[in-house]
UniProtKB/TrEMBL annotation:
Membrane-protein topology: Multi-pass membrane protein
Keyword rRNA-binding set for record: no
Protein name, entry field: Cobalt ECF transporter T component CbiQ
Main location: membrane
Regions crossing the membrane: 43-60, 72-89, 109-136, 233-252
Length: 254
């Protein structure tokens, strides 16, 4: 895990949020999401307060609103599911814009949309301010099983390798005049997928042998030991603690 590795969600910056150790940010986001999930769905104002808190965090991290909103599009499948709930759920029916909708379904759709959007937004902010390599080191600092951390590390790194191999194979097909226009071309694509699998397997074996020849014995060396001070932990705790106050107030108000 010594080499750097950038990803599309990361936005380089020098804000206080970028400077926080990854384990602090991981713990803060996890606690924030747990608090949001624990909030009663009837406390509608509380979710607005959570959104305002995340907007303040984004401002501190200097993350543009457009950058954040574009990456929230990943939750569109869940939005589609939530939109269908008022139509298919059972229970008391209410008239909304001339349509008979389920009241429990409306509450369920609101619950999924509000909590899901806030969770995705918090995750996007985490990814936007933390490199993948730092996230893996943060998981190590939080005592996540080392084997799981290594598997995640290899998946991230060699996912890009396989993607690049797929790109080269696509260019090779196009240079020979191939275009996938219908079912007749599926055989060529299937053969390409098989070749990709074999190449990936062989490359994995070569990488494993290279690691063993360099002394790999089941654990990866930690080059950068990212320790966190008490002040940094307290700074990161501001997000979940603020959310906890909102959550408790929401339970009291209903």
């Amino acid at each position: 895990m010594g080499a750097g590795h950038a990803h599309k969600l990361y936005r380089e910056g020098h804000s206080p949020l970028h400077a926080l150790p990854p384990q602090c940010k991981l713990a803060a986001v996890l606690c924030f999401v747990l608090v949001v999930v624990s909030t009663p769905r009837e406390a509608v104002w509380a979710f607005g307060a959570y959104a305002a808190v995340l907007a303040a965090v984004a401002a501190v991290a200097r993350i543009p609103a457009g950058f954040l909103l574009r990456r929230l599009l990943i939750e569109i499948p869940f939005v589609a599911f939530a939109v269908l709930m008022p139509f298919v759920a059972d229970g008391e029916r209410v008239a909304v814009l001339g349509m008979e909708l389920s009241r429990p379904g409306l509450w369920g759709a609101w619950n999924i949309l509000a909590k899901g959007t806030l969770g995705v937004a918090a995750s996007v902010l985490l990814a936007s301010t933390t490199e993948l390599r730092a996230l893996l080191l943060g998981l190590q600092r939080l005592r996540m099983p080392p084997l799981l951390v290594q598997i995640a590390s290899f998946m991230i790194r060699y996912g890009d390798v396989i993607t690049d191999e797929m790109r080269r194979m696509r260019i090779a097909r196009q240079s020979r005049g191939f275009e996938a226009r219908g079912v007749r071309q599926w055989g060529v694509l299937a053969k390409s997928a098989g070749a990709l699998f074999i190449r990936s397997y062989e490359r994995g074996e070569r990488v494993h042998l290279a690691m063993i020849s360099r002394g790999y014995a089941g654990t990866m060396p930690v080059i950068d030991d990212m320790t966190a001070t008490r002040a940094q932990w307290l700074s990161a705790a501001t997000l979940p603690l603020t959310a906890l106050v909102v959550c408790l107030t929401g339970w009291i108000s209903i």
